[in-house]
Structures are given as structure tokens and as C-alpha cells.
Design goal:
The protein is an all-alpha fold. It has one domain. The protein has 24 helices and two strands. A two-stranded antiparallel sheet has the order 1-2. A hairpin with a 2-residue loop joins strand 1 and strand 2. Helix 9 packs across helix 10, helix 9 crosses helix 20 and helix 17 packs across helix 18. The chain is globular. It starts with 13 loop residues before the first strand and ends with a helix.
Length: 475
């Protein structure tokens, strides 16, 4: 029997220390609309498969197994009290790709990925348990944070366009990517389309689908232009992920020895860079839920950044052992969180609880991974989907990175260090950003740095979170 909440109270659940256990149909209503949208949007999650096959040497079936395990752990957030739709650590993906490529393909590369993801996960859990997350980020100068974000944006664009390397998809599918990314940018960032969304309900719902309409178009446009094949179907209803090969050849339970201490130390700059990105997602989660709360006095939304750190940190730690994943385990899928929050604002009849909406959406994506017709339909366009995601992410990362700078000196540092980070890796980029910051603010570091006023009136965590919410319509 489903438990009811009192007006203005928190959704029922079972307290478990810093966590709160919530079970579907018992502690929240299952939302069919969000579940069906999840079935559709699972195709975006599958777009990481070309990276796993191309950079780690996995088969499609092994990569699908990783997507399924990561997707299963997505459910941990709402299950343990975090009212968000989690996703990838998207801005850090190109940085991590560049990092792992410095190691030899095969065993050594997998060890480097395992060492990074395990360290990253345990670091996030530590910050969540101790409550030191905000304090840690405050120790990192804005110029360095800006450099990391801008470097991530540069890396994403380079990943798509670098001749003979990168994703190897633009040279093969130039017209398909150009058309689809053009439509995606129009739907996501165009001021003209924003006006249409306000005036037309169909355009409003079309915009809520993020980059999905562009991906759907690619399924038709690619084959018509001769750049992609049409989807093929083998008659199967259920997919066949290869968990056995995954455990045997790509984890420490099989042929991959546990990484050396040196690998853990080498990955620390990448850990710090990824965490700066993740902390931005945590701020954004808080901002989106705070905004939704204004419209729903009937439910107290309980978002705790420390709890979120514990959950997504644990997800990364677990995945490093059972299925190392370049997409990583992030705390937020911004585009879909915005969509769910918007529907939530329409009242209890539209969505009884934010927990029900978020959980139902992720149950939908999880179901989609197992449906062979869906996977077969999008399989030819996964490379196009990933290229489009990286270009959109590049736009957002550079835009937010610029907003993090407090002055023109910060912008100069961020531009130089960000370019170094994109071309030479996280260690070089992070080191150069720190050195440049110290040199430029050498005379009186703290006083000089704090004296410089923001050159953007929106330069604050809340304003930046709002800006991301308006622009981030990709993973």
C-alpha cells in the first residue's frame, strides 16, 4: 500500500543515516509520462558505446553491458533519497579520453581507467561524508576552475574535428553531423526558438526533448546522404549484453591486474579536474530543485549535496571494479532534470512527487537498454550522437568557463591553461593554471585576487547554475 505524505512534508521513506530508502509504488507514485520519455531518451545514454569500443577495444555487446550496469546504478539516487536524474560527467569525458590514451591500449589503459575512477569515487565519498565539498572547491582559484572548464570545452571540440583521430566520425559523416548539430544548436540555444517555445505548446515540448529530435533526424538523413546505413533488425526483442567477456577481459576479476600506486598518483590531476566539473553539477542540482520548490509548497524537497556526493562517489567506485566506464558517474543529467522539474511545477496531478518523476524517467531509460528494436534503430547513429553531444558540451563548457572568471587576468590564464589542458592533458593544464595564477597575483595573492571585481554581473554560483540550466540541453 502506497504511503501518503502530509501537506508540506517530505515524501515518505525509510531513514538510513544520511540516506533515505524509497521504493517505487510504496514511497512514491510511478509516473507513466516520465517513464515513456525515458524509453525514448535511453538512446542518448547509448552514445558512449563508440568511445568504449574505439578507445578501450570492447565489442558492442561488452560496451552495452557497461551502459546497462551504469544505468542500473542511476537508480541509486532516488532510491536512496537524492531527487535528481543522474547522468555522465560529460564535460570531463574528452579530458579522460585524452588521459587514458597516454597509456598503451589494452591492460595498461584499463588499469589507468580503473585507478582514476576508483580514486575519483572514493574522493567524492570522502567529501560527502565529511561535508568538505564546498570548502575544497573554494580553495581552487576561479582562474583555475575557469581553465579546467574551458579546457574541457576545447577538448570536446578537438575530439570531434582532429583529422585522423578523435571520434573519426566527422570526416566520415560531415553532412549528417553538420545538419544535426545545426538543428540541435537551434533548438537548444537559439533566441528565436526560445520565443517560439513561449508561444507554441508543440515547440515547447519539442524543446524539452533536448537533442533527441536531432538524433531522430540523423536516423533518416544519414542513410539518405549515403553516410550511414539504415537500421537492421535481427528479430530479437531483448538485447544480448556480454557480461562474461566484460568481467573476464576488462576488470580486476579477470585479466586486468590491480593498478600500481604510481597509476593512482598519476591520475590525481585528472581527479581534481573532474571534481571541479562535478561540483558545478551539484550546484546546478540545488538551483533547479530550489526553483521547483517555489511552485510546490505541498512537498518539501530535501536535496543534500553531501548525500549526493556519497551516492555518485559510490557509483564511480563500484563501476571501477565491475565495469570501468569513460563516461563516469555524475550527479545530474541537466537537460532531463529541467524537463522533469518543469512538469513537476504543474502540481500534484501532473506529478505527485519529484521523486516519482525522476525515478520513473530512469526506470524508462533502464528498460530501453534491453529492448533490441530501440538499440538496433539507433546503432548506426551512435557516432553522430556522440559527436553532437561533444560539440554541444564544448559550447556549454566554454560559456560557463568564461563566466567563472572574475576578471580579464582570469580569462587570460584560463585561455592559455585551458588550451594546454586540451592538448597536453589534465596534469599539464592544471599545473600551468596554478603557476600562472601565482605569478600574476604574486605581489599579494589573496588581496590582489579578491580585489578584482567580476567582469560579468552574473558571476555567482546561483547565477552560473541558472545560466547552465538555460543552456545545458545535452548530457
Amino acid at each position: 500500500m502506497r504511503k501518503k505524505r502530509e501537506y508540506g512534508a517530505r515524501q515518505p521513506g525509510i531513514p538510513m543515516g544520511p540516506l533515505t530508502l524509497r521504493i517505487p509504488f510504496i514511497h512514491y507514485r510511478f509516473e507513466i509520462a516520465d517513464y515513456l520519455q525515458g524509453l525514448l531518451m535511453c538512446t542518448v545514454c547509448l552514445a558512449i558505446i563508440p568511445v568504449l569500443t574505439g578507445k578501450l577495444g570492447m565489442s558492442f555487446e561488452v560496451a552495452l553491458a557497461i551502459v546497462i550496469m551504469n544505468g542500473t546504478l542511476y537508480l541509486a539516487h532516488v532510491t536512496f533519497g537524492d531527487p535528481v536524474i543522474p547522468g555522465w560527467v560529460t564535460p570531463a569525458i574528452p579530458l579522460l579520453i585524452a588521459y587514458v590514451e597516454t597509456f598503451a591500449p589494452g591492460v595498461e589503459r584499463m588499469q589507468a581507467l580503473i585507478a582514476f575512477e576508483l580514486t575519483f569515487g572514493l574522493f567524492c565519498v570522502f567529501l560527502g561524508i565529511t561535508g568538505l565539498a564546498k570548502r575544497f572547491v573554494r580553495l581552487i582559484p576561479n582562474a583555475v576552475q575557469s581553465a579546467i572548464l574551458m579546457g574541457a570545452g576545447f577538448s570536446a571540440v578537438i575530439l570531434v574535428f582532429k583529422p585522423g583521430e578523435g571520434l573519426k566520425s566527422f570526416d566520415s559523416n560531415p553532412w549528417t553531423i553538420t545538419i544535426c548539430i545545426g538543428i540541435a544548436f537551434y533548438l537548444l540555444f537559439s533566441e528565436h526558438f526560445k520565443k517560439l517555445r513561449r508561444e507554441n505548446k508543440f515547440m515547447y515540448y519539442l524543446g524539452n526533448l533536448g537533442m533527441m529530435p536531432a538524433l531522430a533526424l540523423a536516423i533518416v538523413v544519414g542513410p539518405l546522404l549515403g553516410e550511414l546505413s539504415w537500421p537492421t533488425y535481427d528479430g530479437n526483442i531483448i538485447t544480448h549484453p556480454d557480461f562474461q567477456t566484460l568481467f573476464k577481459e576488462f576488470t580486476i576479476f579477470g585479466n586486468i591486474p590491480f593498478p600500481s600506486l604510481k597509476m593512482f598518483i598519476t591520475g590525481l590531476p585528472m581527479v581534481i579536474s573532474s571534481y571541479v566539473v562535478v561540483f558545478g553539477d551539484v550546484i546546478q542540482s540545488q538551483a533547479l530543485l530550489d526553483d521547483a520548490q517555489k511552485y510546490r509548497p505541498d512537498e518539501e524537497i530535501n536535496y543534500n549535496p553531501n548525500r549526493s556526493h556519497i551516492i555518485f562517489g559510490a557509483r564511480n567506485s563500484i563501476m571501477s571494479i565491475i565495469g570501468p566506464d569513460i563516461s563516469m558517474c555524475g550527479p545530474l543529467w541537466a537537460a532531463m532534470q529541467v524537463v522533469v522539474c518543469e512538469r513537476y511545477k504543474h502540481g500534484p496531478k501532473a506529478m505527485e512527487s519529484i521523486y516519482g518523476g525522476a525515478a520513473s524517467f530512469r526506470f524508462g531509460t533502464w528498460t530501453g537498454y534491453f529492448l533490441a528494436p530501440i538499440v538496433s534503430t539507433v546503432k548506426p547513429i551512435l557516432g553522430v550522437g556522440l559527436a553532437s553531444t561533444m560539440l554541444i558540451q564544448g559550447y556549454v563548457s566554454v560559456r560557463v568557463g568564461v563566466l567563472k572568471s572574475r576578471g580579464f587576468n582570469d580569462l587570460g590564464i584560463a585561455g592559455v591553461a585551458g588550451a594546454i589542458l586540451a592538448t597536453r592533458g589534465a596534469a599539464w593544464g592544471l599545473g600551468s593554471a596554478i603557476i600562472l595564477t601565482v605569478l600574476i597575483y604574486l605581489s599579494n595573492f589573496r588581496k590582489a585576487y579578491e580585489k578584482e571585481e567580476p567582469i560579468f554581473p552574473m558571476d555567482s554560483p546561483d547565477a552560473i547554475a541558472k545560466e547552465i540550466a538555460e543552456t545545458m540541453k545535452a548530457k
